[in-house]
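User: Predict the complex.
Assistant: Input components as received:
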Amino acid sequence: MKAKADKNKLRFRPHFKTHQSAAVGEWFREAGTNAITVSSVSMAKYFAANGWDDITIAFPVNLAEIEEINQLATNINLNLLIADHEVVKLLAAELANTVGIYLKVDTGYHRSGILVEYNSDILKLILNVQDFPLLQFKGLLVHNGHTYKTKSRQEIKTIHQNSLEKLVHLKKYLQNNQIDCEISMGDTPTMSVIENFDGIDEIRPGNFVFYDVMQVALGACMADDIAVAMACPVVAKHMGRKEIVIYGGAIHLSKDFIQGDDGSPIYGKIVLLNENGWGNVVPETYVKSVSQEHGIIKVNADFIDKVMIGDFIGVLPVHSCLAVNLMREYYTLNGEKIETMNS
Amino acid sequence: MKAKADKNKLRFRPHFKTHQSAAVGEWFREAGTNAITVSSVSMAKYFAANGWDDITIAFPVNLAEIEEINQLATNINLNLLIADHEVVKLLAAELANTVGIYLKVDTGYHRSGILVEYNSDILKLILNVQDFPLLQFKGLLVHNGHTYKTKSRQEIKTIHQNSLEKLVHLKKYLQNNQIDCEISMGDTPTMSVIENFDGIDEIRPGNFVFYDVMQVALGACMADDIAVAMACPVVAKHMGRKEIVIYGGAIHLSKDFIQGDDGSPIYGKIVLLNENGWGNVVPETYVKSVSQEHGIIKVNADFIDKVMIGDFIGVLPVHSCLAVNLMREYYTLNGEKIETMNS
């Protein structure tokens, strides 16, 4: 992903919410990364304490955390996200230091941000931001989370193309009004499938650091690209209904799921662990349900004979961000412990 | 729940996986509780360290934790759950101290346990258990988790009645073979709706300590019975589509949901916080989606005018066990901090 950003002369600002780890952050630093994205003030504090000094909090400003924001802005280059006059007013009244401001624009996901079509509202909001010297307007920030609802790589590309066209149109409108701005785009599915980055200044993918079963289903990566697995002990076998029970449930994997071909939910795919990591995804075998601590795995006939109670098997998570957040620490294949902000 | 158990002369062995807290455990102790259920060895260790000396781990034995199990069994009365000859053999070979053994029986949930109809298999397994002096056979343990798929209180009662009839039948068969045993039953929906406990020796509900939106939907409790809420700051308002955005997502509430009347998912219900706690559930207002940190709330027209960016609102969780596990600590209405095993 870094090579892709370099090749296209983009600022690479990877989202660190997936790994949440200073140690994994160092791998990024060694690859030349110096700007990052996070999703909370507490995550910004953690990474700032670990030597990162250029951080965007890609979440609407939470005014209850203004003290922490002021503290951060004293020490690092901090960028905040806004989409509302009221927030600008309150922020300007409470800020003690300069911050960068990105305006959150909604090009179709409809989670947060101002609709991209409301160009005069957007202009007014930027002019309002520019009234306050501590607020340094930087650009437009978009997260096309609706790529997670797609059924093909082409559909991801189409969403991106539509989104970018609208943004470029907005940017021209702003330029005609003497406002220059960057365009910052996120989401791993898009950044994984597109090759043409014309018009974009900054990318903020995060999940790609580990990928997961959902990203494979979207066509954003191959199963071989998944870089994290949960080692779970087998605690029961049910030969009759071809199911095994693992100690690995909703408090480990989360309750996120994808839909299988027959519409039934899949909470994880299964691999056999080996000395070098793990093997291929076991066919016709998946986590079919999770309760608090239990995972129930539907297994193919060959596999159930191979696995014994007490064995550890690997579960590739459906959503690696949530699994990492729940597990709080992990190990490299060499047995080195990796801590996260929640360890 | 304690009064119900006392009235029916049942052993009350509440499941502590919902609150996960020594402080909340003390409230149970003050009410006369001295036996508890947990769902993991680590949870057993935590509560044993906090003075509980009669604990059932209601999860299939995880042989990878045999050292911790031996340690626990030295200090407390520990009950384990088995359903397999292989586990009995391995456990008997590794155990250093006496443990109580419950046999997990499956009366229809099909998560784990031996099918209740396989009476001769069950007899053989119990006789196998009785071959080992360190394994003290105690009884049959059932969790009717399929009550969570029901649409009415009557349906819950019917599941319970069918389950209990099969268990009583099995118990008689075992008595005819000179084996006496207890019947231990779990699950909050059943224990909330039934009044007749004939034939049952022990109950193990857990969720009732806080209840949640799912239990209200099942008819197990009223909305007023929900005893835990998440205070979330409002970070954005979208007047056009009548939605607000809160800082409260999948890493706070979990991704568990119930289905609304129109089939769409509901990840939490909304209340207004006040000095004494919170008010009634706000009508036509609910968490419609969650991503890692964001919650999107569909709100009714009155409510959106009342709520300002920066306000805190209350979210009643769909699944309190998972929300507590994610949040790791909570506060009483007096502002007293309550820690959990994960604080």
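Chain A touches chain B through 47 residues (CB under 8 Å).
Let me know if you want any component modeled separately.
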